[in-house]
Every structure is written in structure tokens, then in C-alpha cells.
Amino acid sequence: MAMTPTKSLLTAGSVIALVAACDQTDLSREAGVYPDQVEFGAATANNMAFHTGEKQYVIDLAQRFSREVPDMVNFAFNSTALDSEARTILLKQANFIRQFPEVRFRVYGHTDLVGSSAYNQRLGLRRAQAVVNFLVSQGISRSRLEAMVSYGETRPVIDTPNRERRNRRTVTEVSGFVADAPLILNGKYAEVIFREYVDSASRPHDADGTAGLTGLTD
After folding, report:
1. Computed from CA positions of residues 132, 134, 136, 138, in that sequence, does the dihedral angle turn out positive or negative?
2. Collapsed DSSP state (helix, strand, coil) of residue 96
3. Domain coordinates of the chain in residue numbers?
4. 3-state secondary structure of 180
5. For 122, which DSSP code?
6. Is 72 helix (H, G, I), strand (E, B) or coil?
7. Which CATH class is domain 51-196?
8. What is the pLDDT of residues 168-207, one digit of tens each?
9. Using an 8 Å Cβ cutoff, are 93 and 135 in contact?
């Protein structure tokens, strides 16, 4: 039986509703686990990223970053100031980021649940911007850093309406690769991810197995 225009529209609407239902995200997850928005062509781009290896290597590098470097700094109440502990952590982040000029990073700002949502959104973003500005002061190109997203009070570490330092934080994450980097244009993502490991393995080793000490004198 031929499908009427009305039935066709209803069928299309049902498909769209089904897809939308399957695309619900778990807001309890940490910042950046899911994309912030889905745009036209995102599915194709995602598929290509998996086939070229880019997607997996972004995940691999993100995991390496979280293993080797503290990715979170905390703030005083209603403040964007970076204390000595935060600066120490960000220096470690900067050292890691400098090793990978082909990689982009994103900083997410968060607050505790005290205050209005609108104010906390602005405060979270300002915290992310403070971190980006510090990393830029350490020689990182601003074009590789994003402070465009603030989750404000919506993703607390500790679910409490009271002041909570652990909720007042920024989280730095790997967000992707610089599109025009030579190695990336050649699809050599693995060379970026494992560069330091390969370099350390190729350095001269002493009899005790230590690397990079050959030629040093007292």
C-alpha cells in the first residue's frame, strides 16, 4: 500500500525521536566525556576519525595525560586566583603540553553549588580562562588551548549545596590534534603519542640501565 505524505512525515518523525532518545547523555560523567553539541556531518567526521586512527590516538593521549600529569586545580570560594598549589600543577601541565605541539587541549571550569546558575557559569568560565592564561604565560600557543566551555555548578564532584573546594576546579583535557601539523597531515598519530617513549629507548644506556647519562662527569 502506498504511503501517504502524512504517514511519511509521521514515520520520519518517529525515526528522529528514536535517534534523539538514543543520544541522551549521562550528565554525571566528568567534563568533556561527551561532545558539547552535535552538528551536521558529525557522524561522518566521527567515523573518519576512527578509521584514520585519530579518534583512538586522542583517547590514548588523553589517558597518558591523566596518568602522568594532575589534570585538576582547585580554587578558593568565589575566586579565580591561582594559588601556589595550582601553579605547581599547571607547570606540570605546561611541561607535558610543550612536548606535543601537534595536540590541542581544552580547559573546563566548574564551581560549587553556592550562588545562582548564571553567576556560576560565568565564574566557571573565568576560572578556565585563568588557567589558559597561565599556560600561555609558560609558552603554550593560545591557539592550542580552549576555555570556551564552562559547566558551572552542574557537574559537582561532591553533591552538596554547601561550599566545597573539590567542586571549585578546572579540568584540563586533550581535545584533538592541530589540523595542519605535518605529522598529522600524514596520519602518523602514533609518532606523536609515543614520541618520548621512543626517544628514551633510543638514548645510550649505562651498564646499570639508566638512559641519557652517558658522557656526564662529576
Report:
1. negative
2. helix
3. 51-196
4. coil
5. H
6. strand
7. alpha beta
8. 999 999 988 877 766 666 677 677 777 766 555 455 545 5
9. yes
